[in-house]
Structure prediction request, 1538 residues.
Amino acid sequence: MAGHGQGCSVQTPRRESPCPAEPTCSGVKTKAGEGNTGEKGLAQGHPTARSWLWSMVVPVPARSSDIAPTGIYHGMKTLPLPGCNADHLEEWGKLKAIRNFQLSCEQVMFPETPASSVHTLRPADIKTVTAIGSLQRAPGSDVHHEDLLQSTGKSFLEVSVETLAALISSFNPLVLHQSPLLGTKGETPDSQAIDLLHQAEEIVKLMKENQMMDFQNDWKLITVFFSAECSSCASTQLKSCILDTLEELRTVLDFLYKKVPRAFVNLVDSSELTTSSLACQDYSNVSNPGRNQCNCVGEHPPLDENILRWSYYDAWEKLLVSKRFDQKDDFTVILQPSLQERNLLLRPGRDAFITTSKTQVETLEEVYTIMALGLWNNMMEPVGQKQPYGVTKTFQVQCPSQENPYLFTYRNSNYSSSPETLNTKETSQERTYGTSIPCLGRGPSDTAPVSVHNLRPADIRVIAALGDSLTAANGAASKPHDVLDVLTQYRGLSWSVGGNENISTVTTLANILREFNPSLIGYSTGTGRETTDNAALNQAVAGDCAEDVPVQVRRLVDRMKNDTRINFQTDWKLITLFIGGNDLCRFCRNPVRYSPENYTYNLQVSLDILHREVPRAFVNLVTVLYIASLRELHTSNNTCPKLLMRIECPCVLNLEDNSNEFKKLVYFNRRYQERTRQLVESGRYDTTDDFTVVTQPFSVNIEMPKTQEGLPDSSFFAPDCFHFSQKTHSQAARALWNNMMEPLGEKTNNQQMDREIVLKCPTEAEPFLRTYKNSNYIYPNQAPNYGSQLLCEDRSPSSPPPTSVHSLKPADVKIIAALGDSLTAGTGIASDSLLDLSTEYRGLSWSIGGDASLENMTTLPNIFREFNVTTVGYSTGTGSANESNAFLNQAVPGAQAEHLPAQARNLLRLMQTDPRIDFSADWKLITVHIGGNDLCNYCKDPDHYSAVNFTRRIQETLDILHEQVPKALVSLVEVMDLHPLRQLFVDTQVQCPTYMADYLCSCVLTEEENSQNLSMVKEATRDYQLGIRRLLESGRYDTHENFTVVIQPFLQNPKISLGQDGHPDLSYFAPDCFHPSQKGHAQLAKALWNSLLQPVHQKADSFDFMADIVLDCPTQDKPFLATYKNSNYTHLPVEPTDEPIENWGSDLLCSEQASSSRVPASAHELQPADIKVIGALGDSLTTAKGAKASDSDWRGLSWSIGGDGTLETQTTLPNILKKFNPDLFGFSTGSSMKTAGFNVAQRGATARNMSAQARELVELMRSSSKINFKEDWKLITVLVGGNDLCQYCLDKEAFSVQKYVKHLQDTLDIFYEELPRVFVNMVEILEVSGLRQIAASSSTCALITKNFCPCVLNPEENSSELQEIKRVNRDFQAEALQLINSGRYEEREDFAVVMQPFFRNTLLPLDADSKPDMSFFAADCLHFSGRGYAEMAIALWNNMLEPAAGKQTYNNFTYDRSKLKCPSPEKPFLSTLRNSGFRSADLNLGKMEPSVPYWAVIVAAVAGVLAGSLLIWIVLRRRVKRYQHGTDTEKNTKMTPL
Prediction:
């Protein structure tokens, strides 16, 4: 294509078409009748598949001459043609939003004859698309719809018609679309039906007059958008209102039914697309979500509006199913889902689709397009299975299926709307709503109690309640399926305050209490709203949220004061408050407004009024229920009105399982519950003896009631399946009463509603309603002390002052400073909510905070101030690094290693200019900690965040300090391993904001366990730590006596503490569960102090948040802060990292390098020159990690697929093959993924990742325009297994031999089934046990490999664990060989897979000192260098030419440029079993003897755990002086056999 959206319209009366007779795309002519097959199809000439992004234009007609030259009259238009480089983009170019979505449908042949029945109507049959309708202006709105819609340039009707026409054009390029009539885009007349009828008449007239269509015979798609507004009707007149509106719209459909032949009519309720709902969206400001940011009419649709709209929809569905409009075979009307989801669709930032960078005009057009696409998708879904409209990041456009190619109607969906009769047996309490009271002692106190803690049930004189529709008892007595009756508030049946009849027939809390005190007043009776007299003190309001409760409280207090029956001062009152369901149902619309913090605040305001104004009151604060269980009822097969449920509670029922939105719902729900408890347990409402608030938690972990068959029991719910039925009201009353009888700390929090609940009774010993006081319950300490004791006797400074940093005592430190990220900046340390996470509590920071003193706040400066009260530099209070109280705390939240040099320069400037600091004379302690943010982003850009770059940035920072800061000890805290933090986000019982995981640390917290990305981060963590250690081990910062850098390694292995319940203890973390809390910072400060005193070689390398850390003291023999020098620590020798001068190329001396005379059809006749394409799978060995001095992936040097340089300078398999075929394609170059070619290997990969890599490789090859997928011969090399072995003991099932072989089989099966013409090298896995010997061969390698490959390195010598891993290693080899030689892959002539065994027995080269020759190794001692990779390539190539029974099973790694073998005239082919003279059955698979002398045994292995395959060299046991290679060359090479 020439470009996105390029095209031009067919000729119309107003302009001439610039299109050529035969349009072209990308220089390729589109053949007549083929249509446009998309960018790929046009480029390759494939007419069989239709797949394109909608950034491309729609298909072209068969011939431009097919278009009538007269154009289309009266606004009738066709879609633009593709491939034209014209500027006429008015028709298609404006419809920008559709470009974001993908249509991928199989090529549909045009029907020879149009469908004869509307029930067999295919998209290709449709010739005309049009729509009628008007969007209702919300009552009271002063925004004119005309202005709004014209500001977008297109109305919703226009966009919907154009979108549907664009989609249909992929099946019928000649489809016409009729734009809405002029004057109807924004009109909202008082009589909608008249307007619709007028539009219908005009549309019919225009279609009849149009010369481009055959009105009688062409199939038409007509969409009727209508508004079901009935806002002027009182609730008592709803049914009449519905009937009137139905009749008006029925007139329009009757007209279409009579006048329009061959029509498929969509009927869509667009009531919520009101002017106000669109106009009130603020797309330019999503950061100010205050409550009154937009006073939208109907922002919170009341319950009656929701039920009205559903009832209207339900009535229409029943009418249409009655076949009123199905009497003719060429006409039908289908009721599509209503456009209900306005807030889900239109709220800013939804799924990152609507962004603040877009104008409101662009955003509205996108929303319109999304809804139109949703309408299309629902046309593809059977009636009864249609879905609400929504927005996702990748909106999938549905295609007709081969089984169901038609647009779905009621008839071809086999749909019936008659309610199903489910055979369910209700549990106990069935239709029995009364209760017997088993209690004997029911009398009041002898005298009216003066303390709420001595309150008996019979002492209560007044009962009241606050809340929402659950307390108003909406629908409690409604008959099944009578959804409209849910609007009736049966307050007399309300669980907490209803007083209908008596306890024998109606169980409510009030009726229970009346058995103790018949004079009880305040309970509600009958039906009605809160304003009616019989509502009494039940002041709950249907639809209310927590923010509305203060108004209810005020009204309740006034009613009690004005009721002459109540002695307001002396009567004891029981008030039950239950609220929060509506908050949770709306939280996704405005997460700040409905945040746990605001929810709790509103509860507090309400309770504060009661506490302040109402004497003698016992307040039941019923914890909000676990609302997610409602989803079970919504998803089960029952008669519940699912659409209405989604309307009533969209933020619970419209979310996808395991989505971030759902996780956020669960988090909000649990935080509502937790913060409610915290509010009460703060003691705020226990300041007087006549008032208390008690949380009643019976619904905290409530589950969906089930039938005996285990299905959700809808009998516990009103007909809307959302509100409680009388059955549940009875159970809730019993549960609440029992909670009131239970002492604090022992209250039921998981009441089973489908079980019998027996009422508990006051006892003689415990006759009172339970409070914290009479339960002997102690509220948790709300002000914990995080101070510490320092028991050091000698706190004196040096005398005289020290001149060497290695003689520095704690009291000598005058200046304290810090660099880093949010951990050091103090993000969220004292926060009690997510809203406060932006606060930087610098005064509490572990390494630099100076608030308070050590007695109540443990920080490193507070410890040092115990030695030297004149210490300065610490930060106090809150604020950013730029504020004066931050002082020398220059850490910045979000900082990465690349930002650290700038922090160092700022710190230097501050120290040099502050008058409190003698820059030259004062000793300074500078703490540096960074790396968390680098790791959190590592998987997104491994090159940018590589260990080499990380180390370089740290070095730049330390160099600045080293060169310019005198008298300084820099304490470099090692990079923290973030992996343990995953526990907080994967444990479903922990109340952490899992929905924030992607924002906090996506590369660690959101990845699946054992995923490739997570493994990469694990390896990067170790590489970061290794890089820093090597930097400091170099002695670079020990060049003079007044400066040093010391690494503090205690964060290398952090441990997340578990509470008594076995789940992570969140008290150590901020509300985001990622940053430490004040408690966590105190622990970090203790660990850091102790690390400062510990000798370098004795420092702790682990940290347990829960550990009882006692502050150490300097001792008489070790009085100084520990450094390398005063710890008598010798720096480990640093291996040279400079690249060798010589190259590792080879000379290919083959005389015959030509390809076969003809392209072979058999893989067994394949010559090297026949290979056109090369690919590879594997781990970090194939990515060529460490091939150069840095730890980057040098894919261009990869042994099996690298193509950097030439064979003369670097030996790789592609460089060898390029000598036979210079046009070889697919090899890697450089170190960037952009130039990886067909190298799909990834660090950290295990066998389980191979099938995914195989699929990726197949798709890359299939989609490449550079190769002929079907004809070109492909060579693919696979090597994997080291990671599996290194992790075997951690999960023996996941890394078992059977799983390993099964993964290899799945991989090969993919190639076998999907790839034509392929030769697969399966390289045999090495043996990894020798890693133990290489780790012991040098101190440097011992340090590096300490934390790698635990299943090989950790077992004791001769232990059963070590013997087991060796056995598994051998089984990997044997079983993989068995798979390859099983004959499974012999049926195809053009496919071969061959085991290449050169790694089975490998000789380790030794240097002149009989030590491993490190020139073959990378700097990490575990991967190959460029030299080592070259040896692997040589061995692989030679294996490929060697016959099956004569393959060399070792590689001695002796450098020789002439080791490459050549094909011979007798054996010119790549070796396979067949052309070697074998068949699978001929091989003895159980025998794996080496084909070399007894001393040439296994000595090298590649493995890797965490983030990459680790190359492991196994040191051999005996020394060999000489090894003869070939027949002409003798090399004197020192080797050690095992």
